Amino acid sequence: MARDITERKKSEEELRKSQEQYALAAEGANDGLWDWNIANNEIYYSPRWKSMLGYEVHELTKGFEDWENLIHPDDHERAITALNDYLSGKAESYDVEIRLRHKDGMWRWIRDRGKALRDANGVAIRMAGSHSDVTERKVAEESIRRRNEYLAASSEIGKIVTSTLDLNTIFARTVNLINERFSFYHASIFIVEETGFNALLRESTGAAGAEMKRNKHSLPVNEKSIVGKVTLDGKAVVVNDVRVDSSHKYNPLLPDTLAEAAIPLRIGNRVIGAIDVQSKSAGAFSDDEISVLQTVADQVAVAIDNARSFELSQQAVMEMREIDRLKSQFLANMSHELRTPLNSIIGFSRVIIKGIDGPVTELQQQDLTAIYNSGQHLLGLINDILDLSKIEAGKMELAFDEVNIVDITASVLSTMSGLIKDKPIQMKRVIEPNLPTVRADAIRIRQVMINLLSNAAKFTDEGDILVEVGLQPQGSTRHELRVSVTDTGPGISKQDQTKLFQPLSQVDDSPTRKTGGTGLGLSICQHIINMHGGRIWIDSEVGRGSTFHFTLPLYRKEKDDDTAGGQKTILTIDDDPQVIGLYERYLQPQGYQVIPLSDPSLAVERAKQIKPFAITLDIMMPGIDGWQVLDKLKGDPDTRHIPVIVCSIIEELEKGFNLGATDYLVKPILEDDLVNALDRLNSDGSIREVLVIDDDPDDLRLIGKLLTNDGRYKATLAEGGRMGWDIISSGNPPHAIILDLFMEEMDGFRILENMQANPKLRDIPVIVVSGMDLSAEQKNQLNESGQRLLTKGSFSETELLTSIQRSLEKAQTKNV
Ligand code: ADP
Predict the structure, then answer these.
(1) Nearest of 740, 749, 744 to residue 718 by alpha carbon
(2) Rounded to an integer, what distance in angstroms lies between the CA atom of residue 804 and that of residue 594?
(3) Ligand 1: does its nearest atom lie under 6 Å from the Cβ of 425?
(4) Residue 480 C-beta-side C-alpha neighbours within 13 Å
(5) CA nearest 736: which of 763, 711, 698, 754?
(6) Could you tell me if the CB of 522 is within 6 A of ligand 1?
(7) What is the biggest distance separating any 2 CA atoms in the chain, rounded to whole angstroms?
(8) Which of 460, 637, 635, 446 shows the shortest CA–CA distance to 550?
(9) pLDDT digits (tens, 9 = 90+) for 406-446
(10) Residues 240 and 259 sit within 8 Å (Cβ to Cβ)
């Protein structure tokens, strides 16, 4: 027993000694000490231990409970677990960092370490340890961690915000991302209005933000508010405790705000707005945080600037499109407005001259001829000016076709022979035999040749005018055809030759010059030829005459390989698999092979590969306009000859031209044109009754006279579309119809559409007349006999398919 006591005494002595040593060392290191007798639950806290937390030696007398009470609620569980784990032997050591409350209410970071004394069974009976204050290190660590987090957040926000060009998206992303990533109470973005007087709230987080936006919250740009001051000075403002700083205005929607900061949005020296952030903790905004937020704000400002520039450029593009549309509209209207009255002047003077209205005296004849000639002259002028404005507006469109230049030459020469009948001039032609066809707009080429020939006739007093047509250069493999017009006129000096093709330039522009003219002709010719891919130039010497040359590319026809096996390939462009299925079901038994294509952007490429016999084309496809596809097919020399059958639902005016119209004329309509057009239809003489539909009473009367005068036709006149349709649908339809396209009330397109829907009326030939120029596309559609437009909604399946069949038959006769 005595031995036991001595033993215990000894070990206690040892412990005391080691404790003293430890205490000495600990106090030296400025640490506080504790010593806990587990058995009776008594704790000793050293004076330093207490002072570290702001307490006097006589305070904190409740032992273990005191310690537990001071622990930060968030750290409590962790501390107790660590202690229990060590005491139970689960953990090897006890060493934790926890927050304890200082007497002043602030939190202190404490490193708490300790060791236990255990009995023979390993049960802890006593434990002692130390407290070190690590607050400073912890705060430094924490600020580094937050800083890294912020930098990551800032670069992420920058990336996300700059990835859009939509201003509202930028605003919304900015406030939401800042609020969320930085864990603020509230964030908003203000933009300075154009006047510079107010900063308007553009986006704001949460319900408070929604309410403020609804109220169109804005702040004047001045010293009186935080945001106002930032937008005024362009410098960040931080209020870390709103209770002691009056620049923060209490906002009942955000009652918990304890700190507020606003960061300027700057582009160069300009302040365009501010980002405002609010926190529920006082002192929330450190310098570090503000500098990171400024980085974010700078990126947001750049994004806003980009988006605004983009918006402006978009607006400019829209405006340009609108101007473009107005230009086309203006040209179309002008040509209509100018030609309509001329139609009456030219038409009626001609009617009277020809004595249709009764006999005229020679004097009247002379006067009327003067009116007629002036009208023709005016028409020429108007056409030139309209052509030139079309060219300048980029609106000149060509209707390319396979053209035989020999035919054009012959018809031009016969028209022009009248020009020289009063002069000692001989018109000659030299045409190479077996010339291939060219790729051209026949009407425009005619216009060029007439222009060159009338110039030659105008400036030549005697001698020859020679028209030569041949390959360029002779016998070479170049795919070009050359037309040359040579005269024996005055010639043009080298110097004058340079300005010849400029608009409005005349070699002799003195007021005393002999010949009239506008100086527009040659510049229009040059544009037309250039648009054909050809060239125009002049060879001339003063005193020896002039030669004008132009070239045109030859028409190359693809060999039709696919018909070899007796099977004709149809390329079907449609996004609807059901429609494709329908075509297959119907066309395959007829010997056609249907190749579907659902991606219209590949139309030209596939058409080149497959070289189909015909193409069916849907107009309304998602994302792409069938007219563009048609344009591409018709614009490529390798695919332009393939007949295209348009099958679609469209609301555009163009549809009329596919509805079976067989010819078209542009006003003013001359007698010859009209009768020729009818004659073309009337090869078998079966047409007698012709219905004329026009809403202009003068035009109506004129056409009526022209037809009646011809003697072969009986004209019925219908003023306006409604009346016309009544006659057509009366059960006694006419043999042919002459139809004005652009009428109010019921226009020509509607009539064509209605006729198309009725099997009895569908095949009545229609000649379309119009005061407006038709676009190249429209002309093409009229010219291409293989084309026809179907309206999906209103046609039954069999009608759709028989209509295609008819189109194909036409295409076949054309190809053979
Ligand atoms: P215009 O309508 O005035 O004839 P053009 O553009 O056709 O306009 O011609 C411009 C000018 O070029 C003419 O005014 C004339 O001076 C000159 N010119 C054109 N063709 C000939 C020609 N065959 N011989 C001499 N001069 C010509």
Answers:
(1) 740
(2) 13
(3) no
(4) 17
(5) 763
(6) yes
(7) 169
(8) 446
(9) 889 988 888 787 778 788 988 899 998 888 888 888 889 99
(10) yes
CB neighbour list of residue 359: distance below 8 Å, 6 or more residues apart: none
Rounded to whole angstroms, the Cα distance separating 568 from 583 reads: 14
3-state secondary structure of 739: strand
Contacts of 497-502 with CB under 8 Å at 24 or more apart are 497/538, 497/540, 500/538, 501/525, 501/526, 501/536
Distance 540 CA to ligand 1 centre (A): 12
CA of 537 to the centre of ligand 1 (A): 13
- 55-61 LR contacts (CB < 8 Å, sep 24+): 55/103
Ligand 1 centre to CA of 204 (Å) is 71
- 668 upstream amide cis, omega within 30 of 0: yes
Residue nearest to atom 9 of ligand 1 (CA): 519
Encode 403-433: b = buried (16+ Cβ within 10 Å), e = exposed.
bebbebbeebbeebeebbeeeebebeeeeee
Q: Locate the ligand 1 atom nearest the alpha carbon of residue 516 and give its number.
A: 3
Tens-digit pLDDT profile for residues 632-675: 887 788 887 777 766 643 333 343 344 444 444 444 545 555 56
Residue 392, token pair as written in the block: 């300048």
Is residue 546 lining ligand 1, measured as CB closer than 6 Å? Answer: yes
Q: What does the alpha-carbon distance between residue 796 and residue 582 come to, in Å, rounded to a whole number? A: 12
Q: According to the model, what pLDDT value does residue 512 have?
A: 47
For ligand 1, say whether the CB of 332 is within 6 Å of any of its atoms.
Answer: no
- Radius of gyration, CA atoms only, the chain: 47
The average confidence (pLDDT) of the chain is 80
Q: Are 808 and 616 in contact (CB under 8 A)?
A: no
* Nearest Cα residue to atom 21 of ligand 1: 455
Catalogue the long-range contacts made by 462-466 (C-beta closer than 8 Å, 24 or more residues apart). Answer: 462/423, 462/424, 462/425, 462/488, 463/424, 463/425, 463/426, 463/487, 463/488, 463/489, 463/545, 464/425, 464/426, 464/427, 464/428, 464/488, 465/420, 465/425, 465/426, 465/427, 465/428, 466/428, 466/429, 466/430
Q: Give the mean model confidence (pLDDT) for residues 365-373.
A: 89
Q: Is the model more confident about 623 or about 435?
A: 435
- Cβ atoms of 531 and 394 within 8 Å: the answer is no
Which tokens go with 510?
Answer: 């003195």
